[in-house]
Design a protein that fits this description.
This protein is globular. It is an alpha/beta fold. The chain is built from 11 helices and 24 strands. β1 (6-11), α1 and β2 form a beta-alpha-beta unit. α1 (15-23) packs parallel to α9 (326-342). It has 2 domains: 6-116 and 269-342, FAD/NAD(P)-binding domain (3-Layer(bba) Sandwich); 124-267, FAD/NAD(P)-binding domain (3-Layer(bba) Sandwich), CATH 3.50.50. It starts with 5 loop residues before the first strand and ends in a 7-residue tail after the last helix. The strands form 7 sheets. Strands 7-6-5-2-1-8-20-19 form an 8-stranded mixed sheet. Bound molecules: flavin-adenine dinucleotide. Flavin-adenine dinucleotide binds next to α1, β2, α2, β5 and α9.
């Protein structure tokens, strides 16, 4: 019997890749997903998981599941020949790193996301933690616990305890802000009871090179966030230029050496090596793959490449730039699945949703279409967003159980 299915190759298993493969018709398409990661992290829930609100199994989902008849390959695409419709790939296992294999496709969908942006700051890769996947969240939880245990060792001076318990978050965007908020909650509740001898010693500082924080919100909500952090003793250091990060300190142009127990680096995105090396048109900033409003990839010569699409953080639409968010990635993935399943022909149109950030202690900010929210109502909006980000009913139930346990008995803060 003649083959009627198109061979679809999806590069990446993040929000874009996973949403796409769960919406693409498997009767019409023979789908293969290739990614170094066998899971999809629920990034909006990572800060809470790092600080003990959620169990780590709740904040990611395996790419493979019983009801999905698509193939998964744990590997990385290295190069793509858009003319021959083939990719050179390698397995993503340290003991197989010299192996290579080739994959052919009828349609390729590029969703390799981005990497952490360090701006080349010395010492960041070696000494700071990031917050991009579950392994990062686990490391943060471990290192926070280590700081408290080191500060509790016999013979520690007051100054050593203050230094070990000074936590620096670099980046005043929603990720850095939510992590600071969650750390603040963790210290004020669960850790205050566990480490009564260290009471009043933990401190949190958010550093940002920009003159303000939460630049995606308007000035009124930014001021509200600043006042809320100030009330809780979280220091916000704007226009701070970090020169280097060492194991026990950061050095800034403005304030010199600042001792710290842990630096968490949340300063945004840079592009992957794959995107950098592709023979496609790239945006000047970041850079990202340029597509038209049907998500089709432009070649370097401004011609549309045959059967190649791109979405998620790694791509942007020509003259209609959108932010690097899961919201955009998922909407584009649903749109593209509809196009490929049914031959839908209208261009992609983004539906702007409310932007939400948690500030700690049941406080938050929401920038909505019609009106903004602050305080407890914003916190409730943020929590309900947490709920909707999870995909299975099992996870939804356990998210609600985690909220109830947090309220009744505090957080599960055992290091991993
Ligand atoms: C802590 C945090 C909190 C966030 N909170 C929110 C939020 O509340 N709301 C919101 O809308 N957005 C949020 N975001 C942003 C959101 O997570 C991203 O926009 C989203 O993950 C982008 O999806 P993606 O599929 O493009 O990329 P990713 O999710 O980064 O996935 C890319 C995938 O491609 C794989 N890959 C990379 N290179 C290759 C290669 N060469 N070959 C094969 N596979 C490859 C990667 O391993 C990964 O699996 C948050 C991000 C972070 C880090």
């Amino acid at each position: 019997m003649a083959r009627t299915q198109h061979k679809v190759l999806i590069v990446g298993s993040g929000w874009a890749g996973s949403t796409l493969c769960s919406n693409l018709s498997t009767t019409k398409h023979d789908i293969t997903v290739i990614s170094p990661s066998p899971t999809t992290p629920y990034t909006p829930l990572l800060a809470s998981a790092a600080c003990g609100l959620y169990d780590f199994s709740l904040v990611e989902t395996p790419v493979r599941h019983e009801s999905s008849p698509f193939k998964f390959i744990q590997g990385k695409v290295r190069t793509i020949d858009f003319e021959k419709k083939t990719c050179r790939c390698r397995p993503f296992f340290s003991d197989l790193e010299d192996e290579r294999f080739e994959l052919s496709y009828d349609i390729i969908i590029l969703a390799p996301g981005c990497l952490n942006q360090t701006f080349g700051t010395p010492g960041v890769l070696e000494n700071a933690c990031f917050v991009r996947n579950v392994a990062d969240a686990m490391l943060i939880r471990q290192r926070v616990a280590d700081c408290f245990e080191k500060a509790s060792l016999p013979g520690r001076t007051e100054q050593e305890q203050h230094d070990l318990l000074h936590f620096v978050i670099v980046g005043g965007g929603p990720t850095g802000i939510e992590l600071s908020a969650e750390l603040c909650d963790l210290f004020k509740h669960s850790f205050a009871k566990l480490y009564p001898h260290l009471k009043a010693k933990p401190s949190i500082a958010i550093h940002d090179v920009a003159p303000n924080i939460l630049s995606v919100f308007d000035a009124k909500l930014q001021d509200y966030a600043l006042a809320s952090f100030s009330k809780r003793g979280v220091e916000v250091v704007t226009s701070s230029h970090i020169q280097r990060v060492d194991a026990d300190s950061i050095t800034t142009v403005e304030h010199g050496r600042i001792p710290t127990g842990l630096v968490i680096w949340a300063t945004g995105n840079r592009c992957t090596r794959l995107v950098e090396s592709l023979p496609v048109k790239l945006t000047p900033r970041l850079p990202r793959i340029v597509t038209d409003s049907f998500l089709r990839v432009y070649g370097k010569d401004e011609q549309i490449l045959p059967d190649a699409y791109a979405l998620g953080d790694a791509a942007d639409i020509q003259d209609a730039s959108l932010p690097t968010t899961a919201e955009v990635a998922c909407q584009k993935a649903e749109y593209l699945a509809k196009c490929l399943n049914k031959g839908h022909e209208a261009p992609f149109k983004y539906q702007q949703k409310a932007v939400v950030a948690y500030l700690g202690q049941r406080d938050g900010v929401v920038a909505g279409d019609e009106h903004n929210l602050t305080g407890q109502r914003a916190w409730m909006a943020w929590r309900s967003k947490n709920f909707w980000w999870t995909r299975s009913w099992r996870q939804k139930v356990f998210v609600v159980v985690a909220w109830a346990l947090d309220w009744l008995v505090g957080r599960g803060i055992a290091p991993v």
